[in-house]
Amino acid sequence: MKDAPGTSGLILEEPLLWEKGKKGRNGMSVSASDVPAAALPEDLVGDGPDFPDLSEVDVVRHYTRLSQWNFGVDTGTYPLGSCTMKYNPKVNEKQAATPVIAAAHPMLDDELCQGTLELIYKLEKHLAIITGMDHVSAQPAAGAHGELAGMLIIDAYHRSRNSKRTKILMPDTAHGTNPASAALCGYKPVKIESGKRGILEVEDIRQLMDEETAGIMITNPNTLGLFEENIREIAAIVHEKGGLVYADGANMNAIMGIVDLKKCGVDVLHLNLHKTFSTPHGGGGPGAGPVCVVSELEKFLPYPRISFDGSEYSRDYNRPESIGRIHAFHGNFGVLVRAYSYILTMGAENLRMASQLAVLNACYLKVQLKDYLHLAYNRPCMHEVVFSDKRQLEHKITTLDIAKRLMDCGYHPPTIYFPLVVSGAIMIEPTESECLDDLDRFVAVVRRITMEAMEQPELLTNAPQRFKVKRLDETRAARQPCLCG
Ligand SMILES: *Cc1c(COP(=O)(O)O)cnc(C)c1O
Questions:
Q1: Which of 160, 158, 122, 120 minimizes the C-alpha distance to 139?
Q2: 27-46, pLDDT tens digit by residue?
Q3: Which of 20, 146, 375, 430 is deepest in the core (most CB within 10 A)?
Q4: Separation of 251 CA from ligand 1 center, angstroms?
Q5: For residue range 151-169, what is the model confidence (pLDDT) as tens digits?
Q6: Domain boundaries defined on the chain
Q7: CA–CA dist 200, 209 (Å, integer)
Q8: From atom 5 of ligand 1, which residue's Cα is the shortest distance away?
Q9: d(CA 171, CA 387)
Q10: Ligand 1: which atom is nearest the Cα of residue 144?
Q11: CATH 3.40.640.10 assigned to 91-345
Q12: What angle do CA 146, 208, 178 make, to 5 degrees?
């Protein structure tokens, strides 16, 4: 029990409700009818849907068992790199569910929804302070959507100056959504190889940046968990050639309130509120991807903007240079409520400390595991650390085997095979939520798995054993999903 948190309990076989049903079972007892039976209208006569007959116990157990096949941050350590699967305090859920907030209709007139407008307005101000940027629009619904908004803003900026640009610089460590967002806006991504140290080198940018290039998309810290130390010099080169600097802020959990991105030379930034600011995620949303800009680009932000004249909040649609609306109403408002509640309950000092602890935890794992797993870049890491299967490959054990075995040991696997620049990558992001005891338990399990890789490799190649489904054909699972168990 002790060595496998989360998965050593009973994992019950569970048939479909249709297989479970038995004629005559009943979910509730209805009193005998005291009125004469009437014939059904003709068009309703027939067999009707084939619903199984089930008791209340049948149904409650069925759905409770299904819910226990799930794994989430609330069940255990979830070190999925680049996703910031940290604990989302329940108080923020409670705020979002407050009836006056949850029931506020987005078509209410301004004077009837002053509170909700104030919340969006103030959240945008707080996010500006936390990142160092000047203005924020909370409208985009996810990181990738924020990227699209940001790239449309960069495009609008160049058009407003009659500057025709066709390319955008893109590090080879970028998340796949970055080149996709740029391409959607008509820009051709130009790959920049990260240097030997896992970060961008100034000389490469100097070589590649020209006046046909709209700018650069940088993730900082990057997806190797390393801080792009040369960002200011790189930004200066990009600006000198008339380009703009886009920062992917998905990794904000490492630098909240610590790094001033405007001072780093960033012009446009997106945040992932569902990663950094307390919205449960995984499984498809909803999320929020606010886009943050410097003053010069404010006029291009999506409309409506929420404005405040000192006494009233209002929605401003009169924004001739705006890229337009990119989401119905105000984006995913419930996610904004959670973020606002999170920021207020944490306060500036604790937000900063959360980032410091997230970095400390990743550094701890790096030190504790580097003699067991090959470390892709042996340098100070930020909130996540990237290992690889280089050592285990000698025993024909791959990253996938290690990830599957971790599941048997009660852990959600880390992100694997990303970033692409590290062959067999194992990207671990513990977040600040894990205490030292939990980190030590995880370390012990990973160390043990690396021993098993040498001594009992079948434990890894046959993993997972403790699950309903074992090794899936992952291509077929994605293309022809079978959802019937
Ligand atoms: C998660 C992530 C994104 C995309 O964000 P979504 O909210 O999933 O659209 C972009 N870049 C990086 C580095 C990420 O980790």
A1: 120
A2: 888 888 899 988 888 888 77
A3: 146
A4: 9
A5: 999 999 999 999 999 999 9
A6: 91-345, 357-466
A7: 13
A8: 143
A9: 20
A10: 9
A11: yes
A12: 20
